[in-house]
Design goal:
The protein has 16 helices and seven strands. The protein has helices spanning 3-11, 26-40, 58-66, 95-108, 131-138, 150-163, 170-180, 184-198, 206-212, 217-229, 233-245, 250-270, 276-283, 287-297, 302-320, 329-347; strands at residues 18-22, 50-54, 75-80, 116-121, 142-144, 167-168, 203-204. Strand 3 (75-80), helix 4 and strand 4 form a beta-alpha-beta unit. Residues 89-94 have low confidence and may be disordered.
C-alpha cells in the first residue's frame, strides 16, 4: 500500500497486526511510525505497551509479540533493521542458523495475535527477494514511502508552514528547495527556522529564505558559477576556498561546476527567446533558476560557454587519467574561467 492508503486506514481506526515501513523517504516513514504510535498508545500505560527491537532473534521477537498489552487493545512492537529484510544476513559465519531464524519469523507472521501491532522499519528499501519481505507483501503489510515529487514537496512546505501560522508563496518555496535541497528532515529544520525568523510577519518571502536558509554544496557551486560568469573574482575565490576548507572534495565540486557550465551552454543554444517553463523542463530546474541561467547565458558568447564546459570536461579527464593532480585542479580551472570571462567582458 502507499502512504495515502496507510493514513486513510489509520484515520478510520483500522490498525493492522503487521506493517513493513519501506522506501527511501525517511522523514515520512518516521512520521507514519509516530502517528501510528499516537493512535495505539493513548493511556497511562503507553510506555509499557511499546517495545523497540533491533534485528532480534526469532525467539525474542515472538516472545515480545506474544506478551499481552496492559490496559490496551494492542501492544506496539517495533523491529528495526532486521537482517532478514536486508541484502544478505548480517550474522556472519552462521548463515544456516540465520536462515532458519528468518523462516521462523516468516512463519510466525501467519499466526500473529490480534493483541499486537508488529512494525518492521528498514533504512531505505528492503530486499524484495527475501522470504520475510514476500510474506509481508502477501499480507498487504508493506507500506511504501517513496520520495515526494517536487510539486508535492512544495505543497508539504506550505502545509508545514501553515501549521506554524505562516504562508509562503510558490516562488519562495521553490527558492527554499533549491537552496536547501529536498531532504525532508533538513527541510523541516529550515521551515522552523524560517517561521522563527519571520517573527510577526505572516508571509515568508524569498528574501527571508535567502537570509537564513542553510545552503547546500550544490547551491554554493551555483553561486560560484554565477560569480565566475560575472567576473567577481574575489567572491568566486572566497566561495571556492570556503567549500574546500569545509572538506568538500575537489573532484565533487568540479563535477557540480561542470553541470552548471553545461546548463549555461544549453541555455545559450536554446536562445534568448526560450520560455522559462520550457528551459526549466529541459534542464530539470525550477522556473526561477531557469530565468537566472537564461539571463546569465545571454551575457556571453556560445563559443565562450562551450569553451568553459570543455575546460571542465578536460580537467576531469586529466585528473582521472593521472595526467593532473587533484590538488589544485579546481583552483586552476576557476582561475582559467575567470580570466576568459574577464577578457570577454573587456572585449565587449
Amino acid at each position: 500500500m502507499d502512504m495515502r492508503t496507510f493514513y486513510k486506514e489509520l484515520k478510520q481506526g483500522a490498525v493492522r497486526t503487521c506493517y513493513l515501513l519501506d522506501g527511501e523517504e525517511e522523514y515520512t516513514k518516521q512520521k507514519a511510525l509516530d502517528d501510528l504510535r499516537d493512535k495505539l498508545l493513548v493511556n497511562d500505560f503507553a510506555m509499557m505497551n511499546e517495545t523497540v527491537l533491533t534485528d532480534p532473534a526469532a525467539d525474542l521477537l515472538i516472545a515480545t509479540a506474544e506478551t499481552l498489552p496492559m490496559m490496551a487493545d494492542k501492544r506496539l512492537v517495533i523491529v528495526r533493521d532486521s537482517s532478514h529484510l536486508a541484502g544478505r544476513a548480517q550474522r556472519e559465519g552462521d548463515a544456516q542458523n540465520s536462515a532458519s531464524d528468518g523462516d521462523r519469523i516468516t512463519a510466525y507472521l501467519q499466526k500473529l495475535p490480534d493483541t499486537v501491532c508488529l512494525v518492521f522499519v528498514v533504512r531505505g528499501k528492503a530486499n524484495g527477494t527475501r522470504k520475510l519481505y514476500k510474506q509481508l507483501s502477501k499480507m498487504g503489510a508493506v507500506v511504501t514511502f517513496d520520495r515526494l515529487s517536487h510539486a508535492d514537496l512544495i505543497r508539504w512546505v506550505a502545509r508545514d508552514l501553515a501549521a506554524l501560522g505562516k504562508r509562503i508563496a510558490t516562488d519562495a518555496a521553490e527558492q527554499l528547495l533549491f537552496t536547501c535541497g529536498e531532504d525532508m528532515n533538513l527541510l523541516r529544520q529550515e521551515i522552523e527556522k524560517l517561521a522563527a525568523y519571520a517573527g510577526d510577519a505572516e508571509t515568508i518571502a524569498r528574501e527571508d529564505v535567502e537570509a537564513v536558509a542553510t545552503r547546500t554544496t550544490e547551491y554554493k557551486v551555483f553561486d560560484l558559477a554565477d560569480a565566475v560568469l560575472s567576473s567577481q573574482a574575489e567572491k568566486a575565490v572566497t566561495l571556492m576556498n570556503g567549500m574546500i576548507r569545509d572538506g568538500e572534495a575537489r573532484l565533487f565540486l568540479l563535477a557540480l561546476l561542470q553541470g552548471q557550465c553545461r546548463q549555461l551552454y544549453l541555455c545559450k543554444l536554446l536562445g534568448a527567446g526560450a520560455r522559462d517553463s520550457s528551459v526549466a523542463s529541459v534542464l530539470g530546474v525550477p522556473p526561477f533558476v531557469a530565468r537566472k541561467l537564461l539571463a546569465a547565458s545571454q551575457r556571453h558568447s556560445v563559443e565562450t560557454l562551450r569553451w568553459a564546459y570543455d575546460q571542465c570536461l578536460d580537467t576531469e579527464f586529466r585528473v582521472k587519467s593521472g595526467a593532473q593532480a587533484e590538488d589544485g585542479c579546481l583552483e586552476t580551472l576557476v582561475y582559467q574561467l575567470l580570466t576568459r570571462f574577464e577578457q570577454e567582458a573587456r572585449d565587449a
